[in-house]
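Anyone able to model this chain together with iron/sulfur cluster?
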Amino acid sequence: MEYRALGRTGLVVSRLCFGALTIGPLHANLSLSAGAGIIRRALEGGVNFIDTAESYDTYAYIRAALEGWDRPVVLATKSYAYTAAGMARSLEVARRELGRDVIEVFLLHEMESEHTLRGHREALEYLLAARARGLVRAVGISTHTVAGVRAAAREPEIDVIHPLFNCAGVGIRDGTADDMLSAIREAHGVGKGIYAMKALAGGHLIPRAEEALRYVLARPEIASVAVGMQSVAEVEFNLAIAGGRSVDPELRARLAEQRRRLHVEDWCQGCGQCVERCPHGALSLVGGRAAVDPGRCLLCGYCASACGHFCLKVV
Ligand code: SF4
Ligand code: SF4
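re: yes, here you go
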């Protein structure tokens, strides 16, 4: 495993970051021991960086995985809090449930633009004060927009940016993959630590997973790539790609057999754009939300780019 400096934070992270969303209740809903075991396998393979969020509800898995683990691990989490009191609660929940005095990276969750960032100023100020007190090491934002990356790049006190980036540009709400890469380069140029998310576009690029992962890993501006993993086979596959190794054909075959489905996130707004995009009639609106007919869904991924809210994931 290769390791890179995360901007000017002083933190050194593995190129592969364990994205913890997928093991938890919002996706695979694995048992505590199964989820912790998958994280542990990633740590044994050289991963030293785990990304989560308060809303993912996966702190218990991470804490269990780190039980008895004696090498340093960088933890990144995020909160939607926009007030000082809300962020104080989020930080305390993270410290208590992760069993840590210090959280290495704390992010404002999903900042869309300079306006969203301004609306979260109180929460950001709280995190900056917490950094000064030594309770967090680095402060930043996660974002699905080019505008979010550019806004954070202009804020001198922000250390880390966690942008959505993949070769197909799926999920980038205000531009293409090239637009996002240009914003990432700008942010990296002013010293921000960058770690990317959604390299596999929420599972839609799984058929091209190797190419898609290598595409993001090849960007020198991106210190690490957070990838959601929900099986040991997926961990082994991602470790091979991040380590520049070829993938064992037997492992490839095992992954191809893994059953997958299209998942609609809770925050679906019921706009219906994905319904129109699906060429196979597999989506409909039920109770104001998109619903999938698994008998018709071919997991082709066409619907993903129709959703500006990144609600559709292959899990
Ligand atoms: S993945 Fe393809 S078949 Fe399934 S709902 Fe989306 S567009 Fe339709
Ligand atoms: S496009 Fe997204 S927000 Fe709109 S109905 Fe489909 S999943 Fe929901």
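Residues 84-98 form the longest helix (15 residues).
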